[in-house]
Structures are given as C-alpha cells and as structure tokens.
C-alpha cells in the first residue's frame, strides 16, 4: 500500500498555527485568546505585586490618593452614602447572591457550560483572592478617623476582583449572544463602568489603595479567562465528539 508522503516541519507549523486561530476548532481561537489574556493579566498583576512588595513609587502615590479621597469623603456625605451602598452590595454575600441569581437563570436556559464557568469563576475567584491576601499581608490604609474599619488585608481588593469576575462574565455571555459590533462592545463598556465604580468606592471609603484595585482587576481578568476558556473548550470537545460519533454511525450505515 502506498504511504502518505511525510509532512515537512513548515507545513506542520502552519497547520498548528491555523488550528490555533480557527474560530471553530476545539483548541482554536477561543483558547488562544484565553491564554493570551491570562498571560497579559498575570504579567500586570506580577508587576503590581512586585512594585508593592518593593515599595516602588506607586506606593507613595497610593498614600497620596488615599489621603485626598479620605478628606473628600469626610466632607461630602451624599457621595459617601451612595458609595457605601455600592460597596455593601458587592460584598462577598452580595456577590454570591448576584452570582446565584445569574446561575439559576443560566441553568433554566440549559446553558450548562456557562453555568459551570460561573460556578468556577465567582466562588473560586473569592477563594483565590483570600489566598493572595494572606500571601502579601499588606495593611489597609490607616487614618486617625476612618470611615470603615476592617481587620483583613488590603492587597488585592476582594470587592474589585469579585466585581471584575461577575460583570466580566456577564459581559462575555451577553457579547457571545449579541448581534452586531455595538451589541458585542456595549456589555464590556457597562462591565468596565461597574467595576470602576466598585473599585472607586473601596478607595473612596479608605479601605484600599489604588494599586490594590488595579491588581485585583488584573487578577479577576486572568481568573475569568481560565474559567471561561476551560468551559468553552469542554463544550467544543463535547460537540466534536458527538459530531465524530454521528459521522461514524453514518459511515457504518452506508
């Protein structure tokens, strides 16, 4: 029997690259984008963490911004009350309730893999954040007359990380099922606005530094990339196996 000619290395490399950027393949464009986002988020978080540990100039900026916001918050009751409500809604219990509502809605719509991704991203992200806080053990901003007093650590911000994961997840789902570029971009704009509001509320109330919330946003993006990419890969592999099984049955029937 004649054998197929060997495939050259450039041809194999081209085939591999084409598969990584294919929007339909099991390990195609979605996996490539997820890995790239994970690497970028990890690099940003590592840079911020290194700066905090080393006492880089950003830590001085942290103190200056914290002092300015604290003075403004003490002198302005209305924004303080609004941001206090926002920060309480996005506490751990609040985020879990919001995630549970979203999960129930996805489950009723039979979005099994999206439900799995949500279950992994939000509770898993909260656990990850606690582990990171205990690893760095950074003290929270200190004021003579604090607006809020917390005994936990500061870096990275748990509220910001949770908001990034939850609203980022919702934006990914909405964008995936939207039509047209406007419908795909708008969810991310709204998610960014929500995350920025939550992050600002933590800084305004004097419980986090600027670098805390920036690192938390990077942490959330990286963790969300892992969860959504993993769930999407499982879904695509399941569909591919079902398709191959169907093709095998059809071949046997011929």
UniProtKB/TrEMBL annotation:
Domain of life, per lineage: Bacteria
InterPro entries: PAP2/HPO, PAP2/HPO_sf
Membrane-spanning intervals of the chain: 27-46, 82-107, 113-132, 185-207, 213-234
Domain Phosphatidic acid phosphatase type 2/haloperoxidase: 113-228
A Pfam short name: PAP2
Record keyword Cytoplasm present: no
Segment forming the signal sequence: none
Keywords, alphabetical: Membrane, Transmembrane, Transmembrane helix
Alphabetized Gene3D superfamilies for the sequence: Phosphatidic acid phosphatase type 2/haloperoxidase
SMART domains (alphabetical): acidPPc
Alphabetical list of SUPFAM superfamilies matching this protein: Acid phosphatase/Vanadium-dependent haloperoxidase
CDD domains: PAP2_like_2
Transmembrane among keywords: yes
Name of this chain's protein: Undecaprenyl-diphosphatase
């Amino acid at each position: 029997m004649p054998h197929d000619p060997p495939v050259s290395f450039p041809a194999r490399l081209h085939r591999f690259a084409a598969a990584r950027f294919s929007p339909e393949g099991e390990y195609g464009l979605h996996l490539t984008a997820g890995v790239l986002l994970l690497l970028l988020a990890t690099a940003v978080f590592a840079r911020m963490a290194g700066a905090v540990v080393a006492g880089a100039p950003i830590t001085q900026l942290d103190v200056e911004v914290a002092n300015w916001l604290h003075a403004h918050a003490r002198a302005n009751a209305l924004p303080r009350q609004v941001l206090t409500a926002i920060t309480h809604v996005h506490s751990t219990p609040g985020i879990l309730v919001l995630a549970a509502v979203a999960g129930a809605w996805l489950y009723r719509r039979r979005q099994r893999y999206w439900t799995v991704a949500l279950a992994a991203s939000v509770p898993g992200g909260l656990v990850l954040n606690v582990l990171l806080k205990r690893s760095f053990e950074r003290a929270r901003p200190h004021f003579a007359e604090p607006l809020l007093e917390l005994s936990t650590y500061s870096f990275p911000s748990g509220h910001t990380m949770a908001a990034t994961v939850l609203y980022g997840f919702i934006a990914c789902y909405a964008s995936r099922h939207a039509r047209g570029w406007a419908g795909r971009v708008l969810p991310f704009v709204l998610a960014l606005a929500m995350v920025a509001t939550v992050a600002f509320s933590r800084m305004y109330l004097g419980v986090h530094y600027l670098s805390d919330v920036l690192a938390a946003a990077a942490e959330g993006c990286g963790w969300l990339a892992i969860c959504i990419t993993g769930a999407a890969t499982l879904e695509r592999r399941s569909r591919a196996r079902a398709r191959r099984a169907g093709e095998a049955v059809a071949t046997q029937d011929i």
